[in-house]
Structure formats: C-alpha cells, structure tokens
Amino acid sequence: MQEVIYFIIVIAILVFVHELGHFIAAKLTGMRTEAFSIGFGKRVIGWSKSKGLSFGPLPEDIDLEGCTDYRICWMPLGGYVKISGMVDESFDTDYSSSEPKSYEFRSKSAPAKIFVILGGILMNLILAIVIFWGMNISIGKQLVETREFKYIPKASFAEKQGFLSGDSIAAINGTKVKYLHEISEQVFLHNAGKDIVVEYVRDGELKSVTIPKKEVPKDEGAGPLFPLVDRAEPFIEDLEPGTPAAKAGLKKGDKILSINTENIASVSHVIEVISASPDKAVQFSVLRGKDTVQMAVTPRKDEAGQGKVGVQLGGIVDSSQLIIYDYGFFEAGGKSIEQIGTVTVLTFSMLGKVITGDLAFGKAFGGPVKIAQYAAKSADVGILGFLNFIAMLSLSLAIFNLFPIPVLDGGHLVFIIIESIIRREISVKVKLRIMNTGMALLIGLMVFVLYNDIFG
Q: What is the pTM of this model?
C-alpha cells in the first residue's frame, strides 16, 4: 500500500507538471484548451468555469463555452491536455468537418505548434533543474576522500589484478585522483575503450598495473572494478517478510558488526560470508540503536547453491571520510544543468547498450512496479531522496517524450516538421491511422515493461 501511495504521488506530480507545460504554452499562443486531464479513460470528476463541479462523463453535446474542463480520469498512468483542432490521445476529429478557427491548433504557425508540443518537455526539464538546484544549495556536494581498499572480495576483478587490502589508488592513466567518484569517471568516461594504467601505493611504495581494455568491465553494473565504495559500513536497508533474516529477528536499519565473530568490513564481505554458508547457521552481531544484538540466521540455498537470507544491504560512509562542498546560488544552478546533461548522456548510453545487447532491458529501465518500489525506497531515505527520485524521473519523462513515436510529443513534432516541409496539413485519416499504430506500440511497450518488472 505504501508503494501504491508513493507511486500515485510521483505520477500525479510528473503528469501535472508535464501537462501544465502544454497548457501554459497553448494559452500563451492563443489556443483553446478543452480539457486538462490527469489520467486516461473515463472521466471520474471534473470542474469548469462554465459548468462548475460534476461527476462522471460529460454529455457529448455539452457546450463548455470555451472554458477548460479540469478532470481526473480513472487510469492514473498519464494525462493529457485536449487542444482544439488537434489530433491527440482522445482521437477526437469532430473539428475536421469545419473551417479552421483562430483558436485552433491547426490554424497556428509551425513555431507556435512546436512551442506547445515542447511545452511539457520543457516543464519536466525545469522541474528537474529546480529540484537539483535546490538540493545543490541545501546539501552541496558530498565528496568521499578515500582511495584505499578496505576489503577485496575473493575471486573479484580487483583480486585478479593483484590488489590487496590497504592498497591506495593514486592515479588512472596518469591523472591523479583524490576522491572516490573520480576513479569511475576516469575509467568509464574519460578513458572508456582504452587500456587502464592504475598507479597505487602499497606500504609506501608506488606501484602500477596495466589492465587491457578487453578486460575492463563496460560499466560498474558488470561488477565493481575497484570496490572502494565498500568502505561504507553495511546495514540492512530492507528485508523480505518470511525470509530467514526476518524469521531470525533481523530488522530494517540494523548495522552489521560481525558474522561468526569475524568483523565485517563491507557490503561485499557480508554477501561473501552468507553466500558461502547455504543451510548453515551463521551468528550475526548487529548494532540496533545503541544496543548490540546477537542472533543466528540460517541462509537458504538458492538455485546456484549459494546462501541467501533475504535482505537488501546498504552502506553508510563514515562521516570522517566525507567532505561537504557548499555551492553558491549561481554555482548550484550551473551544477544542476551539468547534472541534467550527465543523466541525459547516461540514459542514451544505456539505451544504446540495451539495443546492442550489452545490457539487459530490466537493468536499464523500469515500469510502474519498479517506479512504485523505488519511490517508496527513496521516500524512506527522506524528503531529499524522494525529491531527487522525482527529478530523475521527470528528466526521464522528458527524454522519453522526445522519441518520434506517434502519440508521444516527439511523434507530434514529426507531424509538424513534415507539414512545414510539404506546406500543407497531413490528412486527418492518415494521422488517425498513424496515431492508432503508435498507441498500439505504446500499449505493447507498456505491457512488455510491466511484464519485465514482474518477471524480469
């Protein structure tokens, strides 16, 4: 129920902001908006200046006297603004039998039409920028000043390259690194597709190792190249009801101190110990509030023969390792735009990897189920985590709507461009056929994404 509530909140915010962009742009260009809808399908409730509040569908012959019907429909997975004289999600073509009117979409210039179509996307971008801007001002930038391996998992990429616990990375391909995030940036952004020369310090002595490009993982999702983030102290972020962890009494928020009297150094360390103990009781020592609690947990054996206890682990970085950089007002704004660019590039990069088969669809994209899950988890982190999730999703919605698929804003944009080139309107019948095809594709995509969310 919590996930459903947060899902509705997130979708309502994003849809409202997106459609508000279309609405404002239409009003600014003198177009009449017949309906402003949150949700698809049958009208549940609505209000207009001319008719007031009403419930259920409106009569087909109703005259709103040029006013907008602000409505909520029963399917909360989108929304739309019905603009007079435009073929859209409502597939209303009654206007086509009459001459174009000055307040209709079809009678306006190409720049005006493009402005209206891009209005929703612009509002989603503005929402993301405002949230990122506010977060940059309020919390600044958190830098993790550590380049030292605290723990290296057995058979991991780092171990195969000869790294030992205590080694400290000094430079990547000749570029000195100071903060944790700089290492990933050097490997996956600045030196992607190249051999990686890693300089590191061991017992005060500078050493180096060359990693051939064919052996370098394509991204962090392929497995941690350098598990430095494992300096974060592990805690239980979430756990599934009925699993060994839940039955044994482990609770959300417990900080894991040791397993079988062995001090735990990282998230990877926890996973390694549990995986190696299927059907064998292990003794947990956790910090719960100010109390240290002991309990035995028996990992169940999974299909691969490894132990699982049913927890989702998180890591807390020691505050002594954090450096907080405070942004000024304008600097925070510039940083927010930079973040927009970074996320956009990353999104298209992941899409390219999905197309080439280098990345599974389910690892790159998610639908309603994943949105609900991540919305709830981000809200558990706090208001800033929830706002950051909304900003990321708002940006994703803007990018997705640019795709040239009929029904989406990008599809409408293609119609406008073609009409500008041929200097005449595409017939309503042709538009309807294309829009119906686009709607079928979109529904098919939604079904696939939903299936992937549940079974992927």
A: 0.69
